[in-house]
Design goal:
single chain; alpha/beta; 10 helices; about 15% strand; SDR_fam; oxidoreductase; NAD(P)-bd_dom_sf
């Protein structure tokens, strides 16, 4: 993606879960031989991922402007450019909105939405100037359809979808692409960290490595939208074409 030079990918949330799996998938792409910049909050785990993948760990917190600006500056200082950003950092919280502590609301919005938007804002000018690049935003089906007792989380992920769609219009003709990734449940420590385990018998969580492979393919093939598993595109279309029916089914089986 950057001429004959090895392309540079910055992956947030790389210390665990989806981000870790994405780092491992890019690391084995022998054809492109990506230079990996890995961002995450858990410095010890991030160091282990960097060691396994040959990447460079950039520990920090994207929950505030200073952390975002520091990450962007360190990434550009290290490599001079970022060709692909995979924004996989995210946190969750389960419970009724009326019982959600205000500090949890602020933290969810800051990490899942604001931090990502600000990071894209800082890295996008270089991509546009060079005429090449891709932004990959890991959203969720929760952001498309909504989920009971995850209203704030769903709102942040829905914000990423609107952000992705808006950016596509802005970037038309620039050769910079935007990918929105919409997974259902993914088999990662996410549910343990949010304080509530995944309780549904169906659909089964997608393996993180499977999702990571889809993310990688979306970059090398230039896809704008990725559902994981793929059949989730069907319910998404029903939600758009027959919202009343979709909501009735969601209430019945949710």
């Amino acid at each position: 993606m950057a001429g004959t030079a090895r392309p540079v990918v910055l992956i947030t949330g790389a210390s665990s879960g989806i981000g870790e799996a994405v780092a491992e998938r890019f690391a084995v792409d022998a054809e492109r031989r990506w230079r990996l910049l890995l961002a995450g909050r858990d410095e010890e785990r991030l160091g282990g991922v960097a060691l396994r993948t040959g990447g460079v760990g950039l520990p920090g917190d994207l929950g505030g402007p200073a952390g975002v600006e520091r990450l962007a500056a360190r990434a550009l200082e290290r490599e001079g450019r970022v060709d692909v950003l995979v924004a996989a950092a995210g946190i969750g919280w389960a419970g009724p909105l009326t019982r959600t502590p205000p500090e949890v609301v602020e933290r969810l919005v800051a990490v899942n939405l604001t931090g990502t938007v600000q990071l894209v804002r800082l890295l996008l000018p270089g991509m546009v100037e060079r005429g090449v690049g891709r932004v990959v935003l890991v959203s969720s089906m929760a952001g498309w359809a909504g989920v009971a007792n995850e209203a704030v989380y769903a709102a942040t992920k829905g914000g990423l979808l609107a952000f992705a769609e808006s950016l596509r219009y802005e970037l038309a003709g620039t050769r910079v692409g935007v990918t929105a990734v919409l997974p259902g449940a993914v088999d990662t420590p996410f549910f343990a960290h949010r304080g509530a385990p995944y309780h549904r018998g169906w659909p089964r969580p997608v393996p993180a490595r499977r999702l990571a492979d889809l993310v990688w393919k979306s970059v090398v093939r230039g896809r704008d939208e990725v559902f994981a598993p793929a059949w989730l595109a069907g319910p998404a279309r029903i939600r758009g074409g027959a919202p009343g029916f979709f909501r009735a089914m969601a209430k019945r089986f949710g």
